[in-house]
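On clarity, I found the account of how folds are encoded harder to follow than it need be. Since the whole study asks how a given chain folds, the encoding of that fold should be made plain. For illustration, here is how one protein appears when written out as sequence plus structure tokens:
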Amino acid sequence: MKEKMKQHYVFNFLSFVKYKNLEQDTVSVNHKDVTHRKSDNEAIKSSQFDPEEAIGYLNRGIAKRNSGNHRDAIANFNKAIELNPHNAKAYFNLGISFEYLGDLKNSILNFRKTIDLDPKFEPAHCHYGIVLYKSGDTQGAIEEYNKSIQLDPTNALAFYNCGIAKEKLNDYKGAIENYNKTLALEPKNASAYFSSGVIKNTIGEFLGAISDLDQAIEINPKAHWAYHHRGIAKSKTGDITGACLDWTKAGELGSTTSYNMIVTHCKLS
């Protein structure tokens, strides 16, 4: 299970890169929006600050965050918010940095503020779902992922993470449906095939599990976790030789759990 959850969070991080780059682009596009949106205009007039200065702090914060300097990033985002309290993107980026520092409470507060200011900003709903899940609010996470999906039906990350949350609540059918939707959007997503395969193992659909894990391994031949769970599925179908070969391969790739399976189930010469 630890191997499985580790892979889930790896996928979250890789998919976040998409949001990180999107947000950089959004800021540059939003440069024009700041002078046109009514709420921003009013905030700028009342603050007596140059809107360029607020955008400058926001962009510097993003640069700091992208280099891994989250504390300096937070200082810049807070300055951007001080200059323009209506800038949803500043709150969103602040939430991201707090998320990376493990401060889920402040991350949640900033994602909520983002959504209050801009309810249709899809990445905020998706990341809000992630931190709710991490904080133990699985049902709340599902609700936010679904809002993200409503705003962007092509968001594979939201579908995938919603599947993880449903799996945690033992909604295996719903989870598989989400993983299938993920794969319809990202056919080379090894994590989605893996997660679907693990569930099918759990509910006794061993041939389906093998098929999914075959795909995960084809996409990522170094994924020891996929070999390990395919070995379990093969053992359940009576293919002990195939199972032992898979566990051996998983062990060679770094899975100590698989070596334990070999000792328990395989004849050692």
